[in-house]
Amino acid sequence: MWKIKKEVLLFILFQLSYFVTLAQNYNWDNVVVGGGGYVTGIQIHPSEAGLMYMRTDIGGLFRWDNANDRWIALFGWIDPNNDNLYGVDGFALDKNNPDIVYACLGKYPTTQGGIFKSYDRGVTWEKLRDGIFASNMKYREVGENMAVDPNNSNIIYCGTRTEGLLKSTDGGQNWFTVTGVPWGYTGVPSNYWPKDNNPLGIRNVVIDGNSQHSSGNSTNVYVTVYGEGVYRSSDGGNSFYKMNGSPSNVYRTAVAPNNVIYVTADDGVYKYNGGWQQLPINPGGYNSFNGISVDPNNPNNIITSTGVELWWQRQYISNDAGATWKELYAFNGTMEVHDRTWHSIDLGFFQAATAAIIFDPHKPGRVYSTDWYQVWRCENVWETPSHWYNDVKGHEEIVVLAICTPHQGTPLFSGQGDVVGFKHTDQKELPLKRLTDQAECTGLDYCENDYTKMALVSASDWYGLNTSIYTSNDAGDNFTEVSTPEGALNGKIAIASNDPNKMVFVYGDSEPYYTTDGGNSWQKSTGGPTRALTTTYMYQYDDPLQADRTAANTFYLLDRENGKLYKSTNGGQSWFVSHSGNLPATSNYANFAAAWGSNNNLMGVSMWTDGLWLSNNSGSSFYKIDYFSNARMFSFGKEKPGSSTPSLYVYGVHNNQWGIYQSNDFGSTWNRINDNQNYIGNSPTMMKADRQTYGKIYVGTNGSGLFYGEISGEDPNPTQSPYNGSAFQIPGKIPAAEYDFGGQNVAYYDKSSGNAGGAFRDDDVDIGYNNQGGYDIGWIEDGEWLEYSVNITQSGNYKVTTTVASQVSGTKSFELNVNNQTINFSFDDDSGWQSYVDITSEEVYLNSGNYIMRFKANSYSFNVHEFDFVLSTGGGNECSQNLLNNPGFESGDFTSWSGWNNSIETNTGHLYSGNYGAGAWWNGAIEQTVYGLDPNTQYYVTVWAKNLESGKNGSINVDGHGGSTVSTTINSTSFAQYTVAFTTGSNNTSAKIQMRAPAEGMSVVDDFWLGCGASNARITSVIDLEHQLKIVSNPSLNYIEIVNFESTQADVMVYDINGHQLERFKVENTPRFSFDINGYAPGMYILLIKEDDQLTRRKFIKE
């Protein structure tokens, strides 16, 4: 019996010319450091043992993998544009459905966050509504602020920081504000950053599941508003009232199985059992308490923890409902700490700023505690001493500030925030110790000619307090402090390739310094830039300083604010400008890198939205790589086997797609090497490629740790070729089982080894026999794909028929994407795995050419036999018609167009073709609203456009079509063609087409096209008037005949599919006209027939 595991199938055709693919299959994972960031909450599912989640302030949400004893990060789908969503301000579990999770996402209130829901334990997420949250601001460690009613899963409460208490009664699809509960302090929106201005709002929502209302909901709901106290509903959430005598500044709330309430506050622990009482905790002397939990299996067992943002917390346990307490403390024999890695070797990282503490409902005595760095577990909190272990595997939340990748010895060193950094001898194991006893490390380097000599810059806080320089003579095993220039605050350091005693150091808002004696003394350089680093803060996304890895005593220093590269050839004593001219002066961050050996003439600079710039002459000149609209980070890496050129890596944006891209030919072609589940998008900070292993790259983040990517599989560079030796011809049929040669991750991707059906081919794709002859693709799993080489021999309208079978009820669906055209399919047949039906698409226009066709599965429940592309011979959508009026502005004015800050252009440098174009400047626009479109139809806009200044980018936009605005960025100063695809809504027959200029620059456009085909034809003012003109010989081999002329005079114009006029005829005093097409190449052609003031458009096919 066929078993196919996906429901939605996706085809993608990639054009063979200049394109991006995942050239190799990459494995992505964290370099193991363990913890390093604030775990602000933890919850265990009440109905499923081992199902546990923790939230962090800036590192996302994690789920515990009970089988492998590790945490799984759940937010790899977030790209840098949405990195604010990595903050989790609170979350909630559904007692009745272990698969459902709700989360309030948003690090900072200055950027939009939202309430999200997952139906699959955090693998994928749906945004339910916008919202302002602040997981990395004041009182991030308290809560939870969300709760699902355990007696009615449709009811969810969410306490917000700025909108009061929200409630949903339909599983989060709709929300309303609950009256009767104050909103609390909502902050100062004009300036949230001072701590006292942070929005606080409602930080606790707890539902007593043991109380049940007559409606079926839980009766008792508790909401705490910081500064206001505890509010209670006793009628299932219909109304709330303030509980008299409750403490005002509540941090956390817990409900015992016997309905007794406990809260922690800034002045102690309180209990409510008909009235409020403050519990005396002795021994103690502490006023402020935070974490608290009541054993779900014994209401007398309580655990709580001292205060907020303090080191060396104490915990207290009670087995008599709070009447008496026992202190647990790491330094008095009542606790023993295990797993003594760098986390706890001096106990300085144990229970710092304890946030949450909970009993495990599934194992008596087991307790979990979270703090500034990790999660701690105690198997039996009642024994003396209690034993504590760090469950840190898989939890990576450190902030990466520097990366060093020597060409010999240990291949990776990291500099980090809060925990200094590490020597990563084994990247899959916890490091044994920190590099120094400081907190931050912003600079790291080694000597090219003697890798055992290293240096680093370290400080004791984010702002550079106690900044010190350290050196190592034993390959980073030990570092010794040397002198540091007076006034230094954080900074970067580089070591001369030939002499470890010669170093250059630079810090924010300062000129560079140099040493010739290994750091025993420092002198200020002359001639260098004064602001190569523009901040003394530890978050220095700039990486401007590097030693020449080949030339002796040579250093480079980038002054990105002025677009200059400085060079020193005397060990940093003096500097001169080696480049000024090509590089833009930018306020963006910039990374500078130079290659090594005989390639030390190769250099690169990434400048965020000012792009990527390369030099092949040691920086004498640079040229821009227009492939990227944003180049956030750049690095050289080890050369590909067989090549002498180092590989290039860019973290950036190509075609609106964030990714990590690799080039093996110094920027001529690029491959994307990550995927959409591995964006590594949490504010990426630093990137360096491995010098010892080809294809390996390290990416640091601001809160998700340090990642590595490496090629998987035996052959890092396999080749792809057609199954039959040549591409499949379209029009024609493509058997699904005849995918290309090339193997795993090249011609196909299959999650299981071996051929489950055992038919036809001996590889990992699952193929079975077809009862009509031939073979089917089956046993398909989510994410698997196949590729086919195809040759579309003729441009035109096609219908695609796919032969499928299924025995599963319900609607099955898939889609086809060809030449950026998307076609949707669906069917309901479930008559059997060998009972075949043909599903035929709507017409789609395809351009001729060679392509790779990719078939990708996104769900299960049907088999696929073949794909049949059929060229239409008439009727259907008029895909070659340009639906815009005056698309090339050849009227010499803005007829049919509108906008502001725009002008008609006649300067030939501003035109793509013809005599006229158009331009707009300073956020101006050129726009036209088109009417008469078909609803639920996909259209394409293409246009030739360019910017007049590098880095100041305009955009092409479409809105008013019944969907969200779609756009593409104009990212080049040379004319290039841009395409925007959109689909009209079910009740929409119009769309507004627009070019918008950059805020402080100018963009020009020419030759717009709008149609249901992706042609770039340039036809002006075509109006489709459907009178009775007909072509009676279509398709034809020899001639075309037109009948039913209504005027005594007419013009007949013949265009090819690209809009080039081929012939023009005058027709007079006849109702019919014919002309010879024997000299025409086979294909589709367009007729424009002008009678008086009417234009009619028709098409014909030359056989």
From TrEMBL:
Keyword set, alphabetical order: Hydrolase, Repeat, Signal
Gene Ontology annotations of biological process type: xyloglucan metabolic process
Domain CBM6, residue spans: 747-870
Listed InterPro entries: CBM6, Cellulose-bd_IV, CenC_carb-bd, Galactose-bd-like_sf, Secre_tail, Sortilin_N, WD40/YVTN_repeat-like_dom_sf, Xyloglucanase_GH74
Gene3D superfamilies in UniProt: Galactose-binding domain-like (2.60.120.260), YVTN repeat-like/Quinoprotein amine dehydrogenase (2.130.10.10)
CDD domains named among the record's database cross-references: CBM6_cellulase-like (cd04080)
Signal peptide: none
GO molecular function term, any single one: carbohydrate binding
Protein name: Carbohydrate-binding protein
Organism of origin: Flammeovirga yaeyamensis
